Structures are given as C-alpha cells and as structure tokens.
Amino acid sequence: MTTVTSPLAGRAIGLANVPDPVFSGAMVGPGTAIDPVREPTEAVAPVDGLVVSMHPHAFVVMDENGHGVLTHLGIDTVQLNGEGFELLVAKGDQVRRGQPVIKWNPAAVEAAGKSPISPVVALEASTEALGGLAESGEIALGDALFTWS
Q: What molecular function does GO assign, one term (predicted)?
C-alpha cells in the first residue's frame, strides 16, 4: 500500500470542487485537490519514486509499486508557459517524499487569472483502490491525502 502525502499546504477540497471537468469528473483518475496557501512555496514529492513526467505546472512521481501520482499545480496553468514556475528536479530523477520539486507562487497564478487549486491524482487507479481520502479541512505539507492499495 502507498500513502500519498500532500505536496502543498492549504485546504483539501476534493476533486469534485476543481474548476475543470477533466479533474472534477475524475477522468484523469481519482484523488483529491488542495487549495494552496497564497504565498511563494515549493511543491514537494508526494511519494518516494521516479519522476516520470515533468512540466513547469505538473509532475508525476511513480513509486516502487508502479503507482503514478500526478500533482497538477493550478488549473489551465499550462497556458502560463512556465512563467512563475522553477523546476528543482528533472524527469528521470529519483525523489524522496517531501523533497522540493517545483517552486511556484499560487498568488501570482491567481493574479494571472488562473485557479491555483491543485489536483493530486492517482493515475490509472480505481476509486475503490483509494482509502482515507482527505476532501476537506486544513492540510499541512506532508499530511496524508489518501492511501492506494
């Protein structure tokens, strides 16, 4: 079983409240979302593993069980073309849970007209495979978001 921890501090809001139908409809996969604190911050790895996808606004870490966890920083942030995001690791790097992956500023994303709400998704998982899903309340960096069996 994999425990997926929060890559950001903020408030858990659940996928249903993400202002994007692809995420809110769990088309990418089940999970939850974080409404992050509005200050410059670092998104950290939610699991130990291999960075298999890396973009300024999103990354996927695959753990030893073959579970890929997507962290998507904000909604429609791909349209910012990387502006305001600083990559701290590269695709192919091994990372440890809690290791900083991307520096960004949720307040700047919001000022640019995008939502800073950040989905954390279990790729290619069934809803039934997830347990203990955090869908409300304050979340500290590194708090458990869900387990994946």
A: kinase activity
d(CA 51, CA 60): 6
Q: Which residue has the tokens 């990559």?
A: 87
C-alpha to C-alpha distances, 108 to 40, 105, 111, 135, nearest whole angstrom = 8, 5, 5, 25
Residue by residue, DSSP assigns 104-118 as E-HHHHHHTT-B--E
Q: Report the domain count for the chain.
A: 1
Extract the tokens encoding 42.
């670092």
Q: What is the DSSP letter of 19?
A: S
Residue 27: domain span: 2-148
Check: pTM over 0.85? Answer yes or no: yes
Given 55, 57, 67, 72, the catalytic residue: 72
Structural element, H or E, at residue 45? none
- Which pLDDT does position 37 carry in this prediction? 97
Q: Does the annotation count 72 as an active-site position?
A: yes
Instruction: Dig out the tokens for 3 from the structure.
Output: 């425990």
Rounded to the nearest 5 degrees, what angle is found at the Cα of 107, between the Cα atoms of 105 and 110? Answer: 115
Rg (CA), the chain: 14
Contact in structure between 148 and 64 (CB atoms under 8 Å): no
